[in-house]
């Protein structure tokens, strides 16, 4: 067990301008995950697309992100962290701008794929860049990164709703503008680093030969399927339930609900999850949270027509998801002897495939089997996730040892990425 002390608020926020530049860009990048959520119904209506087609904005984005994540550590080892960050930001600016100008839903789907590539390149290297740029103890910089993640996840849907109430194109324009500012800031404030150690292009894929990593990757792909059922599909039953009560939800209403979801996720991921994992242990925390999420999905299936119930359950879902994300990532970092950068890259790539599949399945399933059916499928997927974890538990013997505080885990990941 590390004796690393927790960083103070002053330590976290007393950073060089280069660290702040990366943190700003990271916040905007994390905002992009939930930014399109509030405008999915508007895109569906204005571009004459079905809900299933609109949800493919998540599928193309996550599918390309998943593939790219398997190779980002190799890219960073070839061109350097700073160049990888700038390339990722440039791609986001270009494709977010193109999405704003699209004349069809298929055009947006295609541009979101390019956006996903940029996001993978940026997010995969942002933490190591922040740690490398800090002048003081790295724990403070890591806290700043975690704050950026939480703020981005919470503000993204709210900003999407605010701008989406003007036009569905406005959130894309806003993202492109903010990322362009981040690009300029990093270009001017972050100096090139020394040439990094080489990484084999297939290192992450080869890492999946590790039994523990395979167990956790299988667990994560089914869990993330349910995660993105909740995130990508829920705006549609939410709007339908509001309409049944004579309430026009709109982009702003959806944005406020998912702001609550993102805020709940941020709070539990940073504050609650570390407490639970240290009291219950990682595996028990994972299984308990999966059980809670399964019950929540069943409740959403039962009460999907209740406007109040859907709002409450979506926000409560954020509480569970925050715990699950933190605990699962920490388990991946502890369960294998692989270099942390390789384990993280392989796990991230595989789990995003589950997220990519979910929106593609949810729309057609809801159209053919009813609005409750995607939530029922999500509950079944969570049960499978728990079964994968139980069946592969014998491969996770390393997790029984005392584990590091969250800041030490993040620092170890960053050290492996450099």
Automatic annotation (TrEMBL):
Primary subcellular site in the record, as a coarse category: membrane
Bilayer-crossing regions: 20-43, 55-76, 88-109, 115-135, 147-166, 172-191, 212-233, 253-276, 283-303, 309-328, 373-391
Signal peptide: none
Single Gene Ontology MF annotation: transmembrane transporter activity
Residues in coiled coil: none
Assigned keywords, A-Z: Membrane, Transmembrane, Transmembrane helix
Cellular localisation: Cell membrane
Chain ranges of the Major facilitator superfamily (MFS) profile domain: 18-396
Entry GO terms, CC: plasma membrane
Top-level taxon: Bacteria
UniProt-listed SUPFAM superfamilies: MFS general substrate transporter
Membrane topology per record: Multi-pass membrane protein
Protein name: MFS transporter
Record organism: Rothia terrae
